[in-house]
Amino acid sequence: MIETKNLKFRYDEEKLGLVLDDINLTIKDGEFVAVLGHNGSGKSTFAKQLNAVLMPLGGSVCIDGIYTSDEKNLWDIRSKVGMVFQNPDNQIIASVVEEDVAFGPENLGIAPDEIRKRVDFALKAVDMEKHRGAAPHNLSGGQKQRISIAGIIAMMPKYIVLDEPTAMLDPKGRKEVMETIKFLNREHKITVILITHYMEEAAKADRVVVMEKGKVIVDDTPEMAFANVALLKDVGLDVPQVTDLMYRLRGSGINVHHNLLDEKACADEIVRALEEK
Amino acid sequence: MHIKVENLVYKYMPGTPFEHIAVDDVSFEIKKGEFVGLIGHTGSGKSTLIQHLNGLIKPWSGKIFVDGVDISDKEVKLHELRFKVGIVFQYPEYQLFEETVKKDIMFGPKNMGLSDEEAEERAREAMNLVGLDHSLAEKSPFELSGGQKRRVAIAGVLAMQPEVLILDEPAAGLDPHGRNEILSRIEYMHKEKNMSIVLVSHSMEDIARMAKRVIVMKEGKIAAEGSVHDIFKKGESLKEINLDVPQIKRLTDELRRRGYDLPDDIYTVERAHEEILKLFEMEHHKV
Questions:
Q1: CB–CB of B260 and A274 under 8 A?
Q2: Burial (Cβ within 10 Å: 0-12, 13-18, ≥19) of residue A86
Q3: How many interchain CB pairs under 8 A, A with B?
Q4: B247 to chain A: which residues are within 8 Å by CB?
Q5: Is A132's Cβ below 8 Å from some Cβ in B?
Q6: Closest to B280 (Cβ–Cβ): which among A164, A169, A274?
Q7: Which pTM does this prediction carry?
Q8: Does residue B124 sit in the same domain as residue B202?
Q9: Given pLDDT bands bounded at 50, 70 and 90, which one contains residue B129?
Q10: pLDDT tens digits, B146-183
Q11: How many domains, chain A?
Q12: Domain limits at B266?
């Protein structure tokens, strides 16, 4: 379990004010939580608090009962919480895929045959076994990002924090990475914290946390969180086109639900309203 | 300024076992004042292609004509061409390096041989164009937010007053607010300054809204070319090459499939709203 209590943080410059302002969140084992917010809302800063890249200025972050603020816990924290960043090119270091995936466990001092097993397992989990011998620079963006994720999986973390992992990918790469994340959560019971500003991605989570100016302003199921389109637009979030459309139709006096995110559901809802008329 | 590309081929590492054809016999034109969207899956050759347009890389074979002049001609001064064809690369903020925002934007104009005063004037104009407040001029670019940095980098290219502006994913990684700001500035430069624009993007929504003509690349070749409508009406063939149509188009297509009378060229939420309201006003909405 991850627990933050009255978590406060600001960067050196006093004038910028608090980047994290009194965050209280509990993330249970096995959950898939999406953290939504625009640039500067504090979501990436929050992510970095979870594996002690940054330490709280006030309050606490506690991973399975261990506090991130105590330096001697660093090793434990980082082996429990793995992080994946935006740009896959900055996260891949070896010239062969499987060597890259092995880098993390090697650093943990794990025995060679165990590393072999873990690399095989991790590549399978992200569906990249076929490319084990490939050179990472020959892979697509989505494939490279899946290799980054495999590198984290091979360290067998309990929690994975992904900070906008799809921002640099094309639509297909984005889909591949999201499917991988969902699979890891469902099949391997890895707790996932996904930082994103795409509502479509957040919709795949069990729970959506919306951050604005360093505070949590929404913490709910995706359906409930997205019902308030006006609020989400106000805080500068990307609302899917179809959700925006349903919201506008409702504004024009058409009786449709507007917390729908995919086009099939919206089509059903519009058809229902037309038939009812 | 008119750009014409003829049978362009570019190979990475030719003659080695790693030889890879990145651009494969590509021909197209960009007319003066056009707004062209360039789409294609990752690795389809878009970025390699655009680097040819101001001579950053040389074709393996084929020709590029700018206003009728072959740019591989020894007489052509490539650095002058680069002032006219400005390229904003992906994540251009990584290229910021000067101490202040103003100095960074002045770097291009000064390389063109302009005086300090002229370069400063250019920097001021460019800051206006991208909507950067002048109070930021003396700040370090590294103190700014992501969206602001991006605008400083774009201003650095605009300060050279290019006639053609090529942008490779200018909105990637920005939040909706930052994205709208950048995109509306690009539209402004196109409409008010009559700049030709080539926009490379993975966002089908942005391309459908902004571009007049679309070029689709697949594995180094041009897979399709035409108006926004020509391209997006073939939704299925786009899917085959890892692309898609705007989400709103998928919704209106679904309604059309179920027999509702909607036009087949709806790409924006505004238009969909308008057209669907019409269905609600009609007595018989099925075809």
A1: yes
A2: buried
A3: 98
A4: 240-242, 263
A5: no
A6: A274
A7: 0.79
A8: yes
A9: confident
A10: 778 999 999 999 999 999 999 999 988 777 777 888 89
A11: 1
A12: 246-287
